[in-house]
Amino acid sequence: MVRQIGISDYGLYALIGAFLSYFLIDFGLGSSIARFIAKFRAEGNENKINNMLGVTTRIYLILDVVIFLLIAIVYFFISNIFTELTSSEIDKLKVVYLIAGFFSIASFLFTPVDGALIAYERFFVLKLSELLHKLLVIVFMVIALLNGQGLFALIFINGIIGFGIKLYKFFYIKKQANLKINLKFFDRIMAKELLSFSSWMFIIGISQRLLLNIIPTILGIFSGSTQIAIFAIAMTIEGYVWTFAYALNGLFLPKVTRLVSGHQNRQEVTNLMIRVGRLQLFVIGLLITGVVVLGKSFIQLWMGVDFILSYYVVLFLVVPGIITLSQEIASTLLFVENEIKYRAILFVFASVLSVIIGIVLSPQYGALGPAIGVGIALILCHVVGMNIVYSKVLKLEIGRFFKSVHLKMVWPLLVSSSLSVLGQQYFQIDSWFSFLISSSAFVTVYIFLIWNLVMNKEEKKLALSLVNK
Fold this sequence. Notes:
Blueprint: H1 2-20, H2 29-43, H3 46-75, H4 78-81, H5 87-108, H6 113-119, H7 123-146, H8 151-176, H9 188-213, H10 215-222, H11 225-245, H12 253-261, H13 266-303, H14 309-318, H15 321-324, H16 328-336, H17 340-365, H18 368-392, H19 398-404, H20 406-426, H21 432-453, H22 457-468
Helix pairs in contact: 1-5, 1-10, 1-11, 2-3, 2-6, 2-9, 2-12, 3-5, 5-8, 6-8, 7-8, 9-17, 10-11, 10-17, 11-14, 12-16, 13-14, 13-19, 13-20, 13-21, 14-18, 17-18, 20-21
């Protein structure tokens, strides 16, 4: 994309997605729907599910109208917001804003579908849809680029495929779960309960946008389209790390709900957290240490020397995830126990801190400035702060978790990464072939150490069963 449409247009491509995401927050209702459906299913009350979906559908219709009005108003102030963009870049941005805005508004109504798929444990369809979405976008973008199409075609492809996938998921879950959305039903108590829980999720949604998605906007105001493109490359890598790490995301919401509903003690929830955390860390450890020791060479081969700064940006974005991305069960328990306000408060603090640091540093350091802000905020709030909440509020055995999960992984991570760095001193990575050799050696050493020093019998049995399948 960068070679075909240029750094400037790629910067606009990254900017429009991040900018429109501010308007497309689902106000936490998607998570509320997943939580309440799981709860009603555990109680065996299907009628309540249909009534609740009727209430939420009405709410989403109102929100969609409000979002449409906001997007329409902001359109007339685009040139006043992005003062560092040239006049030709502003003209292009207005066109892609209209295209992306139309599909965003059309797709917003179907936002709760993922929550319903999780609650009904239709994980195969959910993950397959995510994979299909990515593959279709890539295939049609490549076709468009090979046929000389530019920025506008790429935005349209993203929009139409995203809308199509959402439609498919909606009709699938409606048919398979035999859902009958009762639009005639409205209950103030239920609406209040839904909005009470979702209000904290709304705050988290806003904070998440301010933490990462706002950075292209900050760079558009203070640094220009080139720095947006540099940051966008780092966000692409961070996005794939996140995608792999969250392969298990949401899958345990029904199980954790059943554990809590059955009044099992926190020791059992901690045991589940350790089992899942270890599996997540096997994958996350490989990805993040791989980015640290091989990421610079990869970016140089992939994008060229002009994008080396993206490597340092991505370090600040992904390294804290070695802790946060392995704690899915604790995060899920916050939803189940309705203690999400603590996460919201910490997210707000992290976002404000990140934005302040980003605004101060971006004029001088470009894309690296906001990345430093994100890294500091993630460590202070998401790593330190959230683990205090997990321990003190949720009463989980966090000390035992770290001892059983991260402490066991220290030596394999250190040894495999150190050997990779040492190997690159004698075997220079200057081509895709040499990169393949180095990365294969790193992966082999990592798997060997994990298998022999960390994995227990149950985990080995699971790994072998996956290989056999």
